[in-house]
Automatic annotation (TrEMBL):
Keywords: Metal-binding, Zinc, Zinc-finger. InterPro entries: Znf_CCHC, Znf_CCHC_sf. GO terms for molecular function: nucleic acid binding; zinc ion binding. This is CCHC-type domain-containing protein.
């Protein structure tokens, strides 16, 4: 039911609702939700070291990190590229982040990405003078969450002179966020909204199915901005291109795209009739 597939830093997939679940009855859906709760939590970490082979990366992290000391249980290690590997860690919470810190502190030139069951939320209406530190302390104070249970991923200004924060909240605390609906930051009772994330295939880049179900073209090495091969989105110099609309001018994963907006709306509707304690996935 729960699957994470990703390629790069700016790619993230969280399943809100799938074609399959849409077809299922509400009863069946809630039983899936309940089963999921009892499943063990796995967090995933990708380690990459430029210029080192998979084996060298593995050897160097094994030599320098003591997983027993950190109290970590690794459930699998596998090669995911010439110079990267993926570790699955049991236990949930913030285990993957502590391993990430440890690897980065002890092995030079490694890039570590963590994928866990965090749920993203928007905090809207934050006034323009507010900084990250203040937001963190308000979340602590108002919602009673400790700083280890959430991360401010971004704080973006908008046209009205305000800011929107994107906050990744650890799965076990997401409900608090969801139920709060508003949080006071500065003078304003800021709105909290869940960030809807759609099922997406990171092989063909299309929405609506997962990589394991993909029958499309392999675009897994293509740029997420212009969809052409040979570079990554963060170094992209081209105009954005949307595969769904087959036109340039917008990315396929931005609200500028009508088709993308429609998918979001659909997903939002489905989330509404899903049982309340689903954590929206
Ligand atoms: Zn696909
Ligand atoms: Zn590009
Ligand atoms: Zn489009």
């Amino acid at each position: 039911m729960l699957e994470f597939l990703y390629r790069r830093e700016n790619v993230e997939l969280r399943i809100l609702t799938s074609r399959i679940t849409e077809a299922l009855s509400r009863e069946r859906r809630s039983s899936i939700v309940n089963n999921r709760k009892t499943q063990r939590q796995i967090e995933s970490l990708t380690v990459r070291a430029e210029g080192k082979s998979y084996m060298e990366v593995l050897r160097s992290i094994k030599e320098s990190v003591d997983v027993d000391k950190l109290g970590l249980k690794i459930s699998s290690i596998r090669k995911v590229g010439e110079n990267s590997l993926r570790l699955n860690i049991e236990g949930g919470g913030d285990k993957a982040n502590s391993l990430k810190r440890e690897i980065q502190n002890s092995v030079n030139n490694t890039k570590v990405r963590v994928r866990n069951n965090d749920q993203d939320f928007f905090i809207l209406d934050i006034d323009g003078t507010t900084g990250e530190a203040e937001i963190v302390s308000m979340i602590q104070g108002e919602l009673g969450l400790d700083p280890g249970s959430f991360t401010i991923k971004a704080l973006n200004p908008n046209r009205a002179g305000n800011q929107t924060a994107i906050v990744a909240v650890r799965e076990e605390h997401a409900r608090k966020f969801q139920e709060a609906k508003r949080i006071r930051i500065g003078w304003v009772a800021c709105r909290i909204k869940s960030k809807i994330q759609l099922i997406r295939c990171y092989r063909c880049l299309e929405f609506g199915h997962r990589t394991t179900e993909c029958k499309g073209a392999d675009r897994s090495k293509n740029c997420m901005n212009c969809c052409s091969a040979g570079h990554q989105a963060r170094e992209c110099q081209q105009e954005p291109y949307c595969l769904s609309c087959d036109i340039t001018g917008h990315r396929m994963d931005q609200t500028k795209c009508q088709k993308y907006r429609r998918l979001l709306e659909e997903s939002r509707r489905n989330t509404k009739d899903a049982p309340r304690n689903t954590n929206d996935r």
